Write the structure tokens for this entry.
Amino acid sequence: MDLRETFATNLRRLRYARGWSQEELALEAEMSRGYLSELETGEYYVSIKIIGRLAEKLDVEPAEFLKRPAKRGR
């Protein structure tokens, strides 16, 4: 999983944990829902500025977006 996919997966996970729709988060973060959707599908690269804005609105540290999923044992 590359970093863009990792970011997209974590963004969706954090948004779901907050119980927000894409529309709600987009409104809070002052961006279009379309742009947020494209970030969540990994179509666009994200800027540091946007990571900071999303982290603030989701009440998480920016590093949360780049954490790779734990590897599962066999």
Remarks:
- The domain at 3-66 is CATH 1.10.260.40 (434 Repressor (Amino-terminal Domain)).
- The chain has one domain: 3-66.
- The longest helix spans residues 3-18.
